[in-house]
Design brief:
- The longest helix has 22 residues.
- The protein is α+β, with helices and mostly antiparallel strands.
- β4 and β5 form a beta hairpin.
- Strands 2, 4, 5, 7 and 8 form a five-stranded antiparallel beta sheet that branches.
- The protein has one domain.
- The chain is 18% helix and 57% strand.
- It has two helices and nine strands; from the N terminus they run αβββββββββα.
- α1 packs across α2.
Amino acid sequence: MSILRRFVTGGALFVVATAVASANTVQFSHTTLTAATPISDTFTLGDFNTALGTLTGISISTSYSVVAEVDILNSLSTSQAYTNANASIPLTLTSSIDALTASTTATAGPAAGTCAPFPPTCIVGGLTTTGTLTLNVAPVDFGLYEGGGSDSYIVSSTGGTYSGSANPGVFFSGNANAGGTTTITYTYTPLSSTPEPATMALFGTALVGLGLIRRRVRS
């Protein structure tokens, strides 16, 4: 490869690499403290400051965790086997700006075992699950998330349902605790990353040079 070709190719790659590296992110987070379900946590997260640059993406996500207990009451006179003891906790993340909503059902379990006649109640604790709720904002709505203030979000759940499989006369109930961290991530192109005239000239020179080299090779 000639010296000219190496220079021009290197210049083109440098310009492309500079463009790729220009995307930045800024984040705001809030932690919903773990509490007994049902939960409802309303909070605010910061808007995007347009002085930083031009928005290219907005993602809002809640990383949640649930710890549940399933209580089993055996009303029969003999010990009973049970399977699939689990807790199902519906969780919702809502953006009040444009009414975007993401929902899921967090399922903790299953567990299996044998429960003696009541009393006492058989307790199956420490059933855990984790996951993520995500909202992706459409570009047409980016303007709703821009400014110098903040906007409201809600993380909520119902009390949940508790179930399992066993003979008639065996009953399931329970309780759970849920919490998590919600983060809004703004992806943007910084204003300072706009190519300067000299950079554009270098890129143009690189393209012309590559064209000349291609013609030489063909000839």
